[in-house]
Amino acid sequence: MVSAHPSQTPGGVIASLYARGLLDYLRSRGVDPARLYPEARVRQLESARGHEEIPLTEWIGMFDRAVEALGEPDLPLKAGASLHVRHLGVLGHVLMSCATLGEVAQQLARYIRLLGQIGQPEVQRDGDRIHLLWIWPHPTPPSGAVAQFMLGARSMFMRWLADRPDLRYDAHFHFPAPPDTQAFERVFGGELHFDQPRSKMVFPDAYMALPVATADEDLRQQVEARAQSLLRVLEGEAPLLSALKGVLARNLANGRVSLEEAAAALDTSTRTLQRRLGALGRSFQSVLDEVRLHAAENLLRDPNVSLTQIAFLLGYTEQSTFHNAFRRWTGASPGSWRRQQTGRD
User: What is the pTM of this model?
Assistant: First the structure.
């Protein structure tokens, strides 16, 4: 396992719920967390509210301490695989209300900031295979403990959400193979690859169409509203986000909302813009989607603006593209959302 030395650990924060996930796992093993960490700090973490955050360096250090004390290099993997929905807070309820695992991946990317500045999930298709990558947003290399925890949690949640314990994944890790890989074999069930360029999971694209067993259309809008509210609080509308949203909002109608055009308007490079957004736990696409959704909701409240006009004002060339995007964002069609808000078509 690759451990992060204190001088090499990144900045950033992580949701205190993740720290509680580690504490709960240790207790399930019969280990009192107060044996490993200051008792006062354990009490603070366990009493923290769901949206509170702790330094990412502290969280990584907690794993390093537990691994050293228990002599288990794969402890972060097992802790991730034992994570419960309560350790995801509001995001957990958002994911539970999704219709499919593909939608889960989209919502995870959209709201990942609720879990801290821990990187951005990215879905890539390669033929009939899906590569679920984990993009680390910090300049220093990621800790092996973090990669184990993240992928272990994702493998477990995909099975749990779909109620499919038989799902198998190939797993790639950026660190060397540990002496014992049995836990990795149990958690993923597929081929294991170590010393890879990136940490990721690979599985059949058919998994993305699997229905979520807990899908709830009525609950979805409520929990998403809560997630969006928390997201605004956590972001505090960083200057970069405010500036980017302004650029995108001004250029929606003329369609000049590409990454390259936005970077030029902000007098920066595309690479720098992506890196700075990643440090905030965001992606360019998620910000663009947020701006479009906000504009769409405002326009839909005006019954005098047709759906075709709204699609054009959001920079779409076809109404069907807007329709599909809006349903992905909200779970409802633009027409049904308008009727709910205004009582009119």
Answer: 0.66
